[in-house]
TrEMBL record, chain A:
NCBIfam families: PhnH_redo. GO terms for biological process: organic phosphonate metabolic process. GO terms for molecular function: lyase activity. It comes from Thetidibacter halocola. The lineage of its organism: Bacteria, Pseudomonadati, Pseudomonadota, Alphaproteobacteria, Rhodobacterales. This is Phosphonate C-P lyase system protein PhnH. The keyword Lyase applies. Keywords: Lyase. It comes from the Bacteria.
TrEMBL record, chain B:
Belongs to the PhnJ family. It comes from Thetidibacter halocola. Its EC number is 4.7.1.1. It holds the Pfam family PhnJ. Keywords: 4Fe-4S, Iron, Iron-sulfur, Lyase, Metal-binding, S-adenosyl-L-methionine. It catalyses: alpha-D-ribose 1-methylphosphonate 5-phosphate + AH2 + S-adenosyl-L-methionine = alpha-D-ribose 1,2-cyclic phosphate 5-phosphate + methane + 5'-deoxyadenosine + L-methionine + A + H(+). InterPro entries: PhnJ (IPR010306). One of its GO terms (biological process) is organic phosphonate catabolic process. Catalyzes the breakage of the C-P bond in alpha-D-ribose 1-methylphosphonate 5-phosphate (PRPn) forming alpha-D-ribose. This is Alpha-D-ribose 1-methylphosphonate 5-phosphate C-P lyase. It comes from the Bacteria. GO terms for molecular function: 4 iron, 4 sulfur cluster binding; alpha-D-ribose 1-methylphosphonate 5-phosphate C-P-lyase activity; metal ion binding.
Amino acid sequence: MQTHALEGGFTDPATAAAHAFRAVMEAMARPGTIHRLTGAMPPAPLSPAAGAALLTLCDTDTPLHLAGEADCPALRDWIAFHTGAPLVEPGQAMLALGPWQALAPLSAYPVGTPEYPDRSATLIVECPALEPKGATLRGPGIRDTTALSLPETEAFRANRALFPLGLDFLFTCGDRIAALPRTTLASAPSGATEDL
Amino acid sequence: MTETAYNFAYLDEQTKRMIRRALLKALAIPGYQVPFASREMPMPYGWGTGGVQVSAAVLTPDDVLKVIDQGADDTTNAVSIRSFFQRTAGVATTTRTQEATVIQTRHRIPEVPLTEGQILVYQVPIPEPLRFLEPRESETRKMHALEDYGLMHVKLYEDISRHGHIATAYAYPVRVEARYVMDPSPIPKFDNPKLGDCPAIQLFGAGREQRLYALPPWTQVVSLDFEDHPFEPSKADHPCGLCGATDSYLDEVIVDDVGGRMFVCSDTDYCEARQAQGHRGKDAA
């Protein structure tokens, strides 16, 4: 049990984190695009992509909230050893990690202040699937439109309405990552009649 | 030649994580200046410490780095930053815009259109576009929060009433996605139209002022103007003396002490590539 927590980090932290960050940054700069994110082997139930994102972004300066199945002893130990991130309630979190249902309600997380909209949480959402189809996305970073399998669209539309405040999202599944910053307009898959 | 006494790309990992988190927020809020804990770098403020820290945070060993200073690859600032990353990150370097994956720039955007795989890192001296109008940080922060940009329009209007036209020629303010007014760094306003709808990621770092900001690809960037005084990108009305280009931004070079001068491309890579293709200007040897 203990030895497991010591394993699964980046083998070469400086270069692995550099490659991982580029994948995360490309995902955030081009919402809806899916990128490979590897290098970490975290204990179940965490995906390798979410593990690499944690190792790249988390340290003792980043209060982290674990939601649902992500809040388990194996993962707490792994995060404590590899990042030292303090585990907190949603209201103090800079980063949060878990499946979509367990992360709710989104209103619990800090969305920044009008003077400092950057002081908002980033949510790492573990997804059962991540496909370039489903909701239609528009906004900065997207040339025309792009499609991404989002767990829902209403929450992201409400989040978009808060701009420049709001939450930013990373979606992870297996060794893949995509992102949805607060600027992105998400509309339901065609068929549903949602207005922009 | 890679220096092994330093961590990859000079900065320690905790510093890079801090900068990387700030970069993600900057991309999520285009044009907003994110405070970050800028470090002392082994070069003076004003030499691109902000750009260097951003470059260090985004570089991977696979990158090909280009550094330009006012468009030139061969000036002191560009040469020393390029060799800094050669030594501390072991990355390949180039002077060709098309071959580079990361381009750090001081006050120019390359003439060759940027592409999707590229990242442009700007060195920024004063990131706050409102700073010369309102010196208090507490006030400019409120002005951004309230979208209170009337003062900037008054400044442009005063230009018109005094000079007959908007006399701001560089660091020309822009509005990003109809929200934040942003200083594009002291690029000539000739380069402003290249900021918007750009396929590359654009990152801005101000080391002394401890701010960074970003433009994701395909972002709407509008130069501020008035209906009866529309924005006009401008350049010297000459062809390049060396390559004959009529579409590039030009530097004026004084060549003797009796008023002789020539105009040459500020982008040295663009000019050299054109000369290699056989283009000749009137001053070419």
